[in-house]
Sequence to fold (339 residues):
Amino acid sequence: MQYLLGIESSCDDTGVALASIEDDGQISIVAEALSSQVEMHKLYGGVVPELAAREHLRNLPLLIEEVLASAKVGVGDLAAVGVTRGPGLKGCLLVGLNFAKALALAQGIPLIAVNHIEAHIFAAQLDHPELEPPFLALVVSGGHTEIHLVKGLRDYQLIARTVDDAAGEAFDKSANLLGIGYPGGPALARLADSVDKSPFRLPRVMRQSEGFSFSGLKTAIAMLIKQQPSLEEEGLRAALAFAIQEAIVDALLFKLKKAVKQTNQRKVVVTGGVSANHYLRKRLAGWSQITPYFPRIEHCLDNGANSAYLAAKQFRLGLATALNATALARWPIESLLCE
Ligand code: KG4
Ligand code: ZN
Fold:
């Protein structure tokens, strides 16, 4: 049995997890811990990168200590350290990467760099071990909206990607316009789920193009909200939220249906923060031509277990990373095969 420590600090959550690798290669998550920064960024209505980086620096040693102590594993027992190298906020990535490099150097163990989008995708396998490529993956998070054909580890064919905003941003910005809480996505979804229909209907945009686009929808949402004399009434806000959630989910499903047809793949992984959305899950569950795979809700959002699991898979294949590796704010997964 070997142990690998996984670190995630690409955005505003600090995540740490300990993975075990059995002699037969089986990977399990032994312990995990997460520190959310929501309360701090709430004051500013969005993630402040410098503050997030500082929080990661404060949280990381505490979470690592907590995870190792709960598993009764010492630093000296680690066989490798995995860490998110990108994509994400550069200052935040640097904190995790430098921490992992120092640990690797001090312990004389390999560093395993992880791509955050790939980690979101393989989180579905962590929670559904029977899932094997090939499959389609729809990644819907605060910074990313893309569909890939997953042929194997590090082997992706891009099918569609957003040309502007991500689906999570569309949720968050709409919630902001409606004046409901931070983070906006879950708050808007809760409000939308409190009703089962809406008199409002938003346009369905960019249906012809290859990629996703949410900027037209964002403008339509802003105009619709502006037309309302007041947003005081909860029922009106819920009706607007319902129409917004339906339009965003429709946009995702329209492109996903095209991808299923194009690739003839029936296994579909849906992952990233927005995949925690109940309405999206309900619509996918009702689609009989596909078998959807979602990570557990905690693993849809950013966390350490996703990084530890993917790093352990890479470690098993002997894929270590040089200690001079830099943080990558942008790191498209379709380029991984050529690295
Ligand atoms: O994957 P994630 O935790 O962080 C990134 O890598 O971006 O995704 C966060 C995004 C945010 O935009 C958040 O509002 C959205 O996921 N989100 C949701 C829900 N839960 C989180 N959007 C809609 N419905 C939800 N239930
Ligand atoms: Zn993420």
